[in-house]
């Protein structure tokens, strides 16, 4: 059976990862979270003294970028994907608001993007993958056979993020999260290198009013159409 690359891009907190993971599970593909790579890099900066007064020490990061080893695994109990930073499970830490605040700065650095994009292309060599992010359909895999651009209103996205954080027992403030969502949208869309934008050939999916089941049904339908399966 033909194996393809599925690129899922879109705004932050619109459920891309949950959707991409579920799709990969459904069709027996590997899932890669490209955002986790930028988040892990931001965490590395925080934990290795590369931040001074809220700003990244870019030159030190440049010299150490190859030392930042990021790998993915699967939790044997929950079957959720786990991100490892230099061999340590950082899946929980990279989702903190502190990392969320810093990550756009990290993701805007050209040498960081170049490095991560190269690593992401390696991951796609064997095809049969679903990767989500911001520039997967435009820059990482411009020839991906299936491209989805996901969106939802900022308020819906902030509420989802709030529910996610509180569900796992973290303290959360809805207004603070909404502010972070809007700020990240702005930074993601206006940065010079690989800004977030819909690829011309990406299918648009606004999931503000869709259930997960409806969304999955739509995705599988697109997948079947593109791979010629009925
Ligand atoms: O999807 P996320 O919220 O985990 O992404 C974290 C940050 O990384 C977000 O600010 C956008 C950035 N990002 C990016 O620039 N390119 C990607 N392919 C994935 C994420």
Q: TL;DR?
A:
The chain contains nine helices and ten strands.
Mean pLDDT: 93
Number of strands: 10
Low-confidence stretches: none
What binds here, in terms of ligands, is: 2'-deoxycytidine-5'-monophosphate
Q: Which range does the strand content fall in?
A: 15-25%
Kindly describe this structure.
With 230 residues, the protein is of the alpha/beta class. The protein has one domain (5-224): Rossmann fold (3-Layer(aba) Sandwich). The chain is 48% helix and 18% strand. It is built from nine helices and ten strands. The chain has helices at 16-27, 34-47, 58-64, 97-107, 110-123, 136-140, 154-167, 174-190, 212-227, and strands spanning 5-10, 30-33, 51-52, 55-56, 70-74, 81-85, 88-89, 129-133, 146-151, 203-206. Strands 2-8-1-9-10 form a five-stranded parallel beta sheet. Strand 3 (51-52) and strand 4 (55-56) form a beta hairpin. The longest helix is centred in the C-terminal third of the chain and has 17 residues, at 174-190. The chain is globular and about 55 Å long. The model has no long low-confidence stretch (mean pLDDT 93). The structure holds 2'-deoxycytidine-5'-monophosphate. 2'-deoxycytidine-5'-monophosphate is lined by residues 12, 34-35, 38-39, 103-104, 107, 133-136, 184, 188.
Which features characterize this protein?
Rossmann fold; five-stranded parallel beta sheet; 48% helix; alpha/beta; binds 2'-deoxycytidine-5'-monophosphate; 230 residues; 9 helices
Q: What order do the helices and strands come in, and which of them pair?
A:
Elements: E1 5-10, H1 16-27, E2 30-33, H2 34-47, E3 51-52, E4 55-56, H3 58-64, E5 70-74, E6 81-85, E7 88-89, H4 97-107, H5 110-123, E8 129-133, H6 136-140, E9 146-151, H7 154-167, H8 174-190, E10 203-206, H9 212-227
Parallel strand pairs: 1-8, 1-9, 2-8, 9-10
Antiparallel strand pairs: 3-4, 5-6, 6-7
Helix pairs in contact: 1-9, 2-4, 4-8, 7-8
